[in-house]
Design a protein that fits this description.
Elements lengths: L2 E6 L5 H12 L5 E8 L5 H8 L3 E4 L7 H14 L4 E4 L8 H6 L4 E5 L14 H10 L3 E2 L2 E4 L9 E4 L2 E2 L6 H27 L5 E4 L6 E4 L3 H14 L1
Parallel strand pairs: 1-2, 1-4, 2-3, 4-5
Antiparallel strand pairs: 5-7, 6-9, 7-8, 10-11
The structure holds 5-O-phosphono-beta-D-ribofuranosylamine.
The site of 5-O-phosphono-beta-D-ribofuranosylamine has 14 residues, from helix 1, strand 5 and helix 6.
Length: 232
């Protein structure tokens, strides 16, 4: 049994790619990316999905009612039997009806340490510009459950990344993104395993984070975190 996962992305989809690459490296994956959804017809993420032979769907949001979008999204998710959703650079608010149907089964990655530097309009370079303008010395990605507001749901994992003297928003974004690519696939894997009932999720605390994890795989996340610091 493998859990069908959906990834929602509006843009480049490098996190989607990291999830696909990590999945390919697993000996016995308990989940698979079954569906990729984008609100942008020309998103590179859709192209990545097609190249990987994964079902992809352009689901327009702009100018439509939340009711319509929710209905189409839910029927699409049901038709693919999706059990877990990872938002990876998806810039639209998820309709409340979809949030309700996937509560604690839908996560998002944000490129700063929430609850700082998040919320409506805080995406892309704006996040890293705000981090630099505030003079913060530490930043890093946050993975959190999705609720009815942007970037507000309960935090699952965070990974501290240093802000260096002389950083531009672009150098900082690149440093954070490298860490996102290590962290996000592992979080998806933890949920895939837990939801496939391979293990019971247990609270776990790597540096500065609350993490729902399978106890036998926490070592993997810790090793990845250590490797991430060593690379920096
Ligand atoms: C990432 O920085 C992610 O944290 C944010 O949007 C960006 C998506 O990048 N939510 P990509 O499309 O995965 O390359």
């Amino acid at each position: 049994m493998s859990l069908p996962v959906a990834v929602f992305a509006s843009g480049s989809g490098s996190n989607l790619q990291a999830i696909l690459d990590y999945h390919a490296s697993l000996a016995a994956p308990r989940w698979r990316v079954e569906l990729v959804v984008s609100d942008q017809g020309d998103a590179k993420a859709l192209e990545r999905a097609r190249r990987a032979g994964i079902r992809s769907r352009f689901l327009p949001v702009s100018g439509r009612s939340s009711r319509d979008v929710a209905g189409e999204t839910l029927s699409l998710l049901r038709s693919a039997d999706i059990g877990f959703i990872a938002l990876a650079g998806y810039l639209r608010l998820i309709p409340a009806r979809v949030v309700g149907a996937f509560r604690e089964r839908m996560v998002n990655i944000h490129p700063a340490l929430l609850p700082a530097f998040g919320g409506k309009g805080m995406y892309g370079m704006r996040v890293h510009e705000a981090v630099l303008a505030a003079g913060a010395r530490v930043t890093g990605p946050t993975v959190h459950f999705v609720d009815e507001e942007y970037d507000r749901g309960p935090i699952i994992a965070q990974w501290p990344v240093p802000v260096r003297t002389g950083d531009s928003p672009h150098t900082l974004a690149a440093r954070v993104l490298r860490v996102e690519h290590l962290l996000y696939p592992r979080v998806v894997d933890q949920f895939g395993r837990a939801l496939a009932r391979e293990c019971r999720p247990t609270p776990f605390s790597p540096p500065g984070a609350a993490f729902l994890a399978c106890s036998q795989t926490t070592g993997d996340v810790e090793r990845a975190i250590t490797a991430g610091f060593a690379q920096d």
